[in-house]
Amino acid sequence: MGNDWYTSLVCHQNWFQAQLFDLVTVPLFEILVVALICLNMVEMMMETDDQSMQTDMKMFWFHFVVIIFFCIEFFLKIIAFRWHYFSYGLNILDFVILIFMIIGEWSAGGGIFSV
């Protein structure tokens, strides 16, 4: 993503926000997020129409945990970057994908989101 780009935009007003900024811009954090994206992609490729209900539930809960991790990443970055989060195109894409993932799980009618 480029630490220099964000460093030139964000002026930290407190110690906590500066620590979060350092956490979310370290390359290891970004590598872990990309690894989670790849793992989620593999999980989605494993889905079939004729899988058992038990497999369905396992995949639902795995996907739910992935969404929780993406939400945590989103909130950490929002706190660290404030409104500058939305000045980077890939962050906007991440936000839109996260919203669609949440809507997709809610509208699927399974697990804890069923009405």
Automatic annotation (TrEMBL):
- Tell me which Pfam families the record gives: Ion_trans
Which ranges does the record mark as transmembrane? 20-39, 60-79, 85-104
Entry keywords, A to Z: Membrane, Transmembrane, Transmembrane helix
Kindly give the SUPFAM superfamilies that the UniProt entry links to this protein.
Answer: Voltage-gated potassium channels
Where does the UniProt annotation locate this protein?
Membrane
Query: What is the protein's membrane topology class?
Result: Multi-pass membrane protein
Tell me the ranges covered by the Ion transport domain, including all copies. 27-104
Under which name does UniProt file this protein?
Ion transport domain-containing protein
State the species of origin.
Ameca splendens
